[in-house]
Amino acid sequence: MKKIFFLSLILPIICFFPINIYASTDQYTWSTFDLTTEVSNNLNTASISDSENPLNLECGSCILMEQHTGKILYSYNSHEQLRPASVTKLMSIYLIMEALSQGKINYDTKIPCSENAESMGGSQIWLTTTENLTVDEMLKAICVVSANDCVTAMAEFLGSTEENFVNMMNEKAKELNMNDTCFKNCHGIDEDGHVMSAYDIAILSCALLNDYPEITKYTTIYMDSLRDGKSSLVNTNKLVRNYSGCTGLKTGSTSLALYNLSASASKNGMDLVAVVMKAPTSAIRFKNASNLLDYGFTNFEYKQLINKNDIVKTISVPKGVNSPIELQAKTDCGVILSKGTDTNIEQVVSVANNIEAPISKGDELGKITYILDGETIAECSLVASQDVPKINIFSMEQNILKNWATLLR
Questions:
Q1: How confident is the model at residue 399 (pLDDT cuts 50, 70, 90)?
Q2: Cis check: omega of the bond before 358, within 30 degrees of 0
Q3: Does the annotation mark 290 as catalytic?
Q4: What pTM was estimated for this model as a whole?
Q5: What is the residue-averaged pLDDT of the chain?
Q6: Catalytic residue among 75, 86, 205, 323, which?
Q7: How confident is the model at residue 409 (pLDDT cuts 50, 70, 90)?
Q8: In b/e form, how buried is each residue of 21-42, taking b as 16+ CB within 10 angstroms?
Q9: Domains in the chain, please, with CATH?
Q10: In degrees, to the nearest 5, what angle opens at C-alpha 297 toward C-alphas 291 and 303?
Q11: Among this protein's residues, is 146 annotated catalytic?
């Protein structure tokens, strides 16, 4: 009986176990690659040099960026450090939205007004120390009419002092790799050393829209009111009314900064951000931004290459209980292309060598690379769709019984 049992144990191992060990090749390219390398969408710039301005835009600098991939479609002097004026408030808004997401405040939280906030000049709604507005009302005033008093009150509430809040702004700028930026205040009133570049404004604008898309509830308002209708609000960004698909985002102007704008818009599945700095007049900044957006929507398109969790390939896992397993896309992956150039995209699947159990669901085991005209345009990590425990004597016995049961059906 012992010999019979031993044979019943070992024969199925010989007959069935090897089936799950060895992977076979197919039409894809297999290779080993560094799994510590972060995979991201193509961030190459367009062929236009940053020192050229073929659209003849009247401004000190500008940039056109796709919101999700960060691809630059047009740029001119985009890293020049200039005075941002109230476009500064994009960072203040970002930190307010971050505090909301972290539960530090909510939309109904009452925000007091200090004497410092009350004394702010420039764009304002004339807050007084006797009134408290909600975060919802503050955001509306900041986004629609660029209220300096409101943004200062929010800064003091979140940072205890405006100075501390400005430190938070600069820390977030470093985190977002905004290397051309230095904040001196939370509102953008001219101050020596308070600078941003068009590139940094675009990076910040994309981060705000991607991380907190709900902000467009405020940035798309054209007309509204506060204080039970007693205070009228009209958006300083005229594109909200005049440009189809506009989703925001922020204006800024002073006598030294001249006229700045970060304008965002969505059309045909593509989201763009156009930044204009140091335009000579308000009308010209809006015209410049419109021209940039038109250029982007006319000449480029967004191509979705793969969706998160799409199954790309099935592989065998040596020494694994569950084998074969599926590899799936870790994230959505898309790319911005010149219109009409998406017909010859190749895809190459690479799987890491020497894969063996144990494997955890979500482990990166490969990547899919998209190539157009010999150039890599996008990459996406491939991850394990399930756990694969390492086989042991107990799981081996279960596998044997399962295989025998399958044969005896």
A1: low
A2: yes
A3: no
A4: 0.80
A5: 87
A6: 86
A7: low
A8: eebeeeeeebeebeeeeebebb
A9: 11-40+307-402 (2.60.410.10), 61-299 (3.40.710.10)
A10: 155
A11: yes
